[in-house]
C-alpha cells in the first residue's frame, strides 16, 4: 500500500518550511545591501548569486509540489515518478553549497596566513560534492523513477551528502582552531574572536545536522520522500549561514559593546558638526533661557518716589523707598541678602 503521508505529505511539509526560510533569506539580503553598501563588488556578486539560486530553488520546489499534488492529484502511481524540477533542486542545492563552502575556505586561507596546502583538500572535496550532486540530478531526470535510481545510483547521492557533512566538520573545526590561535592574553580582541568562534560553530553545526539527517533518512528509508523533504531545507540553511556571517560584522566591531552599554552616557554625542551648531544652537539657547526663566524665583520691585516742590518750582527728589516683593514665598533668605 502506498504511504501518502511519507511521500507527498513529507514533500509538502518540507516545501512549506523551505519557503519560510526563503523569506528569511530575502530579508537577510535586503539587510546586507542596506548595511554594507560599500562592500567589495565580488562579495555583492556572491550575495546576489546566493539570492538567485535560493529563489530558483524555491520555484522548483513549488513546481514539483504542483505536479504531484495538483496536476496529478489522486494518481498514486506518480509517487515513484520524479519530476524534472524535483531533480533540479538537488543540483541547485549543490551549487549554492559550493559557493558557501568556498567563501569559508577563503576565510580559512586568510586566517592561516595564505596556507594554500590547507585549502586544497577542502576545495577538492567541495568540487567532488558538486560533481556527485550533478550526477544524481542527471540520472534522476533520465530515469524518472526513484526505485530505479535507488537500485542503480544510491552511491551517488550518498557520496554527495557524506562529502558535504565531512566538509562542514573540517571547515568548522579549522575556523575555530585558527581563531583560537589568534587570541592573546588580556587582549581586547578576545571578545570578537570568541563571538566569531560561536557563530562559526553554530552555522557549521546547523548545516551539518541538516545534511546528516537527510543522509540518515536516505540510507534507512530510501523508498519514501522524507529524505527529500529534509534536503529541501539544506540549501536554505547554507544561504542563511553565509548571510548571517556577513550581516553580523557590525555587531563584532570593538566599539559596539560601548555603544550598546547601559551607562547613562552611552548614547550621547561626543561632538557636534558645524551644521548642527548653526541650525540648533539658537534653539537650544532659547530653550534653556525659557526653562531658567520659568524655574527661577521671580522678583517684583515696586518703587514709590516722594518729591518736594519748592517755591521756585523745582522738584527735589527724595530718597527712594524700595519695597521688595517676592512672588515665591519660600525664598525669604534670598530677600535678606538683597
Explain how this protein is built.
The protein is mainly alpha-helical and about 350 residues long. Helices cover about 70% and strands about 5% of the residues. The protein has helices at about 5-35, 40-70, 85-110, 115-145, 145-180, 190-220, 225-245, 255-260, 275-295, 330-335; strands at about 300-305, 305-310, 315, 320-325. A two-stranded antiparallel ribbon has the order 1-4. The protein has a two-stranded antiparallel ribbon with strand order 2-3. Strand 2 and strand 3 form a beta hairpin. Helix 1 (about 5-35) packs antiparallel against helix 2 and helix 6 runs antiparallel to helix 7 (about 225-245). The protein starts with a helix and ends with a helix. Residues about 255-290, about 290-295 and about 310-338 have low confidence and may be disordered.
Observed structural traits:
338 residues, mainly alpha, two-stranded antiparallel ribbon, disordered C terminus
Strand content: 5-15%
Strand order, largest beta sheet: 1-4
How much helicity do the residues have? over 70%
Could you name the ranges where pLDDT drops below 50 across 5 or more consecutive residues? 257-289, 291-296, 309-338
Number of strands: 4
Amino acid at each position: 500500500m502506498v504511504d501518502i503521508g511519507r511521500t507527498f505529505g513529507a514533500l509538502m511539509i518540507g516545501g512549506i518550511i523551505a519557503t519560510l526560510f526563503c523569506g528569511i533569506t530575502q530579508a537577510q539580503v535586503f539587510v546586507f545591501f542596506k548595511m554594507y553598501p560599500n562592500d567589495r563588488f565580488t562579495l555583492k556578486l556572491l550575495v546576489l548569486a546566493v539570492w538567485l539560486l535560493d529563489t530558483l530553488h524555491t520555484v522548483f520546489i513549488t513546481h514539483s509540489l504542483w505536479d504531484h499534488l495538483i496536476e496529478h492529484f489522486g494518481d498514486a502511481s506518480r509517487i515513484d515518478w520524479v519530476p524534472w524540477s524535483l531533480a533540479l533542486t538537488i543540483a541547485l542545492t549543490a551549487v549554492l553549497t559550493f559557493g558557501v563552502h568556498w567563501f569559508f575556505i577563503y576565510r580559512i586561507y586568510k586566517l592561516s596566513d595564505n596556507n594554500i596546502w590547507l585549502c586544497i583538500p577542502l576545495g577538492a572535496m567541495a568540487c567532488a560534492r558538486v560533481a556527485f550532486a550533478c550526477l544524481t540530478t542527471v540520472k534522476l531526470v533520465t530515469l524518472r523513477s526513484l526505485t530505479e535510481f535507488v537500485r542503480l545510483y544510491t552511491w551517488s547521492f550518498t557520496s554527495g551528502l557524506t562529502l558535504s557533512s565531512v566538509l562542514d566538520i573540517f571547515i568548522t573545526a579549522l575556523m575555530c582552531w585558527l581563531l583560537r590561535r589568534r587570541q592573546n592574553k588580556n587582549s581586547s580582541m578576545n571578545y570578537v574572536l570568541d563571538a566569531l568562534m560561536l557563530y562559526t560553530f553554530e552555522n557549521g553545526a546547523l548545516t551539518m545536522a541538516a545534511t546528516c539527517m537527510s543522509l540518515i533518512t536516505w540510507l534507512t528509508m530510501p523508498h519514501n520522500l522524507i529524505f527529500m523533504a529534509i534536503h529541501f531545507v539544506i540549501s536554505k540553511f547554507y544561504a542563511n549561514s553565509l548571510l548571517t556571517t556577513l550581516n553580523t560584522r557590525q555587531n563584532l566591531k570593538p566599539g559596539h559593546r560601548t555603544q550598546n552599554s547601559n551607562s547613562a552616557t552611552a548614547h550621547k554625542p561626543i561632538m557636534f558638526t558645524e551644521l548642527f551648531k548653526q541650525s540648533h544652537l539658537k534653539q537650544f539657547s532659547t530653550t534653556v533661557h525659557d526653562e531658567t526663566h520659568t524655574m527661577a524665583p521671580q522678583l517684583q520691585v515696586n518703587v514709590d518716589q516722594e518729591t518736594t516742590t519748592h517755591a521756585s518750582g523745582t522738584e527735589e527728589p527724595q530718597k527712594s523707598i524700595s519695597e521688595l516683593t517676592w512672588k515665591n514665598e519660600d525664598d525669604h533668605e534670598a530677600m535678606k541678602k538683597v
